[in-house]
From TrEMBL, chain A:
Main subcellular location of this protein, as a coarse class: membrane
Protein name: Amino acid/amide ABC transporter membrane protein 2, HAAT family
PANTHER family cross-referenced by the UniProt entry: HIGH-AFFINITY BRANCHED-CHAIN AMINO ACID TRANSPORT SYSTEM PERMEASE, SLR1201 PROTEIN
Assigned GO CC terms: plasma membrane
Membrane-crossing segments per the record: 12-33, 39-58, 65-87, 127-151, 158-176, 206-223, 255-274, 294-318, 330-356
Keywords tagged on the record: Cell membrane, Membrane, Transmembrane, Transmembrane helix
Keyword Iron-sulfur belongs to the record: no
Topology in membrane: Multi-pass membrane protein
UniProtKB/TrEMBL annotation, chain B:
GO biological process, any: amino acid transport
GO cellular component: plasma membrane
Highest taxon, organism lineage: Bacteria
Residue ranges crossing the lipid bilayer per the database entry: 258-285, 313-333, 397-414, 443-463, 483-505, 512-530
Record-linked InterPro entries: ABC_transp_permease (IPR001851), ABC_UrtB_bac (IPR017779), BCAA_transport_permease (IPR052157)
Keyword Transcription in annotation: no
Protein family: Belongs to the binding-protein-dependent transport system permease family. LivHM subfamily.
Protein name: Amino acid/amide ABC transporter membrane protein 1, HAAT family
Membrane topology note: Multi-pass membrane protein
Signal sequence range: 1-39
């Protein structure tokens, strides 16, 4: 079975092992230890780590298209945000009549804007299954239409990057408008519960953290499976020599479209898990800067390795948390420097450094044996 | 002033009847001023005249104003203007009348209303204003307009005549007619005729419609639409005239949209043309291009800080300074980052984006995170009125001209100079160019400096339109790339056409879609357009296109 193939690889087994251990460890430290213990993991930290895991899944999605397909998408922030909005709409409808204005159907911001009834695209989001389906379908549909148009006309390389960025920018402007019916500037927030669990309780937070870990593991395995399949090899071929692959008879644009849509859906899932953990979704997730930041996580971690993307996402976001707390002004310097350093000095990222080290060790091993 | 006599009460009516004479006297007096040296012993008379204004009833005030007009006092004009502007105030303690010259803050500089002497600053709490109502305002305005008509320069007379349109009543009409005979300037006569025609239209005269048809003045339009509401021949004529005017207005609105579109387009062209060199010709993706624009804008601001009081000189000097600053920073970026990433466009994109973040934060830390404003020099502010409905703002006109100059300059450099030849050679076939003895690295540096410097020029121009802030560049980078890609990479003419047409499209969409939606629609349009024609409006042909 193609889905079982990734488990034959040592790196996948190692990655999954570390991930499972880390999530279990955090859960145990959070539940079993008293708050006074220095090793105790607070509810805040659990939420933060859950956020990192969502970012890691997002980075894996970007690495799938950038690392293996050679498409530098600056629009994954938009897919992430769309997934987030789908989840946000569900959470909004769950508020029911507990909002400030107490309207049983309309969210607060619609009452505030004097809207008479729910816009058509808000219908169905009171049902969890529909909303969760939309988490996949909304980003997927956008990626399908956009990718179909772009790949069919063979828009690739820098051009594709620029128009994906323009798409993100246009969506940001659109979601900032109150008339769009997504809460405008403020976005969607003040959620109460998800699937009946109180979002403010520690247990729900922990549950979401574990869910993020599971989603990351599944997403990783899925991407690994795609990459290891024959399709994955066509991906890499089209990345390295698109014209040649096409001449060999492969329909490159179909492969690109398929992988692009899968990647967008993964980004949507990451967004959907992110929103209940941070408690808000607003148009700033559509900012071009965010989309390009994701790419830098992947670049720093190392392209075309998948685990590198996870390392990069967690490292950069940890650094961001620390930096913005200690010296907020320095963060943009650090981030900007990271862009330059990771591209100029570390073209293969941290994963590349690790691989180099391992190779060196192996070589010294082999040279020692005959001696 | 169109309030019928019966509504005004007996006293006002009486006052109004004497006004024709009064206005006449005032006008004659003001004409005679240079010849007749007025006796200055009437300081007490003046005090009495002004004191009559300081009463509660507006009817009494109206009479006091009449009295002032009638008084033949040479300071009357000054008083009436100050009264109209709300600057005529009375000191609460000593009862002196003063005219405020600047009402900002708590201490107001003022001069004595009677002697004209500067009395220094007075606390606003010690002053009480002589209040007026709308009827008085109208009375004052007509009186002042009449004075202007007799004594003002041509432009002042023109403004005064325009101000009278729609404000003419019985007694004013007579004095206007006699004024019309003396007026030599055709434009002023035209306006006066219109003012009188509006009055005659209200009286139901047919030939007035003929005079008014084709006028774009808004007061004329109001008068015509009022006349069109009725029945009969005059109303029919007025309706026909209105249709005619609407037609003319539509044309003017179209022209205005075109003007705004072209000016917005020329801003886009300025922002994108530097990118057309670095991205289009050299193939280097410089995401820090927006920040180079921002640096140019900051250079303008900096020059104004260095040369306080000379905004015009500062703007002129900031053109070379902005160019050099951005060109220098551009070279630093090229040497430190871009040259190491040759042939890896996606990595170049990321690295230069990082540079843009650093530059933004640098400006935030060194200058300020807040926006700065650049003062527009006097010769750049104001507007040129083409007709009543259409006036073009000067600063946008200058920016259009500047954009054209920069564009022509760049075309000349690329087509006619040695550098342009070498740039084209290097971009078409680097190895071949080098074997012909062209120093490719030097060409890279110079080209990048040129593109970056032009970004700086765009910043200098933008500083005249918007606030200068750390995020200035960010808002233009996506637009700039869109323009270059839309126009066709590597084609300067394409950039020009794309920039201008996107500006115009945006302006056409804006009225019915709103600014934000218009922008979204334009972006979507370009995204779809690129799918259809990936190489832009004017794709490069031949061997160069394959690189």
């Amino acid at each position: 079975m193609w889905l079982s193939r990734p488990f034959n690889e040592r790196s996948t087994r190692l990655f999954l092992l570390i991930l499972v251990l880390a999530v279990t460890l955090v859960t145990i430290l959070h539940l079993a230890l008293p708050p006074e213990n220095p090793l105790y993991v607070s509810g805040y930290t659990v939420g933060l780590l859950g956020k990192y895991l969502c970012y890691a899944l997002l980075a894996v999605a970007v690495d799938l298209v950038w690392g293996y397909l050679g498409i530098l998408s600056l629009g994954h922030g938009a897919f992430f945000a769309l997934g987030g909005y789908a989840m946000g709409m569900y959470l909004m409808r769950q508020i029911g009549d507990r909002g400030t204005y107490g309207d049983p159907v309309l969210p607060d911001f619609m009452v505030f804007l004097n809207w008479e009834s729910l816009p058509w695209y808000w219908h169905g989001f009171d049902m969890a299954w529909f909303a969760f389906l939309m988490v996949l379908l909304a980003p997927g549909a956008l990626a399908l239409v956009f990718g179909y148009l772009a790949f069919r006309s063979r828009v690739t390389g820098v051009y594709l990057s620029i128009i994906t960025q323009a798409m993100t920018f246009a969506l940001m402007l659109a979601f900032f408008r109150n008339e769009m019916g997504f809460g405008g500037n403020n976005g969607l927030t003040d959620f109460y519960d998800i699937l009946g669990f109180d979002l403010r309780s520690g247990a729900t937070r922990l549950g979401l953290f574990i869910a993020s870990g599971v989603a990351l593991a599944l997403g990783y395995v899925l991407c690994r499976a795609i990459v290891a399949s024959k399709l994955g090899r066509v991906c890499v071929a089209s990345r390295d020599a698109e014209a040649r692959t096409r001449f060999l008879g492969y329909r490159v644009e179909r492969v690109q479209l398929f992988v692009f849509v899968v990647s967008a859906m993964l980004a949507g899932v990451a967004g959907a898990l992110y929103v209940p953990q941070v408690g808000i979704i607003n148009p700033s997730e559509f900012e071009p800067l965010f989309s390009i930041e994701i790419v830098v996580w992947v670049a720093l971690g190392g392209r075309a390795t998948l685990y590198g993307a996870v390392i990069g996402a967690i490292l950069v976001n940890y650094a961001k948390t620390v930096f913005t707390g200690v010296m907020p002004d320095a963060w943009l310097f650090a981030l900007g420097g990271l862009f330059v350093v990771s591209t100029v000095l570390l073209p293969k990222g941290i994963a590349g450094v690790l691989a180099y080290r391992r190779k060196q060790r192996n070589e010294s091993d082999t040279t020692e044996v005959p001696a | 002033m169109r309030i019928p006599c019966t509504l005004m009460g007996q006293t006002r009516c009486h006052a109004a009847m004497t006004r024709i004479v009064n206005l006449w006297l005032l006008c004659l007096l003001l004409i005679a001023l240079p010849f007749a040296a007025m006796a200055q012993d009437d300081a007490d008379d003046g005090q009495a005249l002004l004191e009559a204004l300081d009463v509660r009833s507006f009817q009494d005030k109206a009479e006091a104003i009449e009295a002032i007009i009638q008084s033949e006092d040479e300071r009357a004009n000054d008083w009436l203007q100050a009264l109209l502007d709300g600057d005529l105030q009375r000191h609460k303690d000593d009862g002196r009348f003063v005219i405020i010259t600047d009402n900002v803050g708590r201490e107001w500089p003022a001069r004595d209303a009677l002697t004209g002497e500067d009395v220094g600053e007075i606390s606003r709490r010690e002053l009480s204003r002589i209040d007026i109502n709308n009827a008085l305002r109208s009375q004052l305005r007509s009186a002042l307009s009449m004075v202007e008509l007799y004594t003002g320069e041509r432009d002042e007379r023109l403004d005064a005549a325009e101000g009278l349109i729609g404000d003419v009543d019985d007694e004013l009409a007579d004095s206007l007619e006699s004024r019309l005979d003396d007026e030599a300037d055709a434009d002023v006569r035209n306006r006066l005729n219109q003012a009188l025609a509006v009055y005659r239209l209200e009286q139901g005269e047919m030939d007035a419609v003929e005079t008014l048809s084709g006028s774009l003045n808004s007061d004329v339009r109001i008068a015509l639409s009022r006349a069109a509401e009725g029945e009969g021949a005059v109303a029919d004529a007025a309706r026909a005239a209105l249709v005619d005017i609407e037609q003319k207005l539509k044309v003017n609105r179209g022209l205005e949209t075109l003007y705004f579109g072209l000016s917005m387009g020329s801003v886009l062209v300025l922002a994108a043309i530097g990118l057309a060199i670095t991205f289009g010709v050299m193939g280097v993706i410089n995401m820090a291009h927006g920040e180079l624009i921002m640096l140019g804008a900051y250079s303008t601001w900096m020059m104004q800080q260095l040369l306080p009081g000379h905004p015009g000189l500062a703007v002129l000097l900031s053109i070379p300074v902005g160019f050099l600053v951005s060109a220098l920073v551009g070279v630093i970026i090229e040497r430190s980052v871009i040259q190491h990433l040759k042939g890896r466009p996606l990595e170049t994109l990321l690295a230069t984006f990082g540079v843009s973040l650093i530059l933004q934060q640098l400006v935030r830390t060194v200058v300020s995170p807040l926006n700065r404003t650049v003062t527009t020099p006097e010769w750049m502010s104001g507007s040129v009125a083409i007709n009543d409905a259409l006036s073009l703002t000067l600063n946008r006109l200058y920016i259009m001209a500047f954009a054209v100059l920069v564009f022509v300059g760049l075309i000349l450099i690329m087509r006619r100079t040695r550098l342009g030849l070498e740039v084209r050679a290097v971009t078409q076939n680097r190895a071949m160019a080098r074997s012909m003895g062209i120093r490719a690295t030097r060409v890279d540096i110079l080209t990048f400096a040129l593109g970056s410097g032009v970004a700086g020029l765009a910043g200098v121009a933008l500083a005249q339109l918007t606030n200068v802030g750390p995020n200035l560049g960010q808002s233009y980078i996506i637009d700039s790339f869109m323009v270059v890609v839309f126009g066709g990479v590597g084609n300067l003419w394409g950039t020009l056409v794309a920039g201008l047409s996107l500006g115009v499209i945006n302006q056409i969409l804006e009225p019915w879609a709103g600014a934000v939606l218009a922008k979204i629609l334009v972006l979507v349009f370009i995204i779809l357009f690129i799918q259809k024609r990936p190489r832009g409006l004017f794709p490069q042909k031949g061997r160069a296109a394959e690189g």
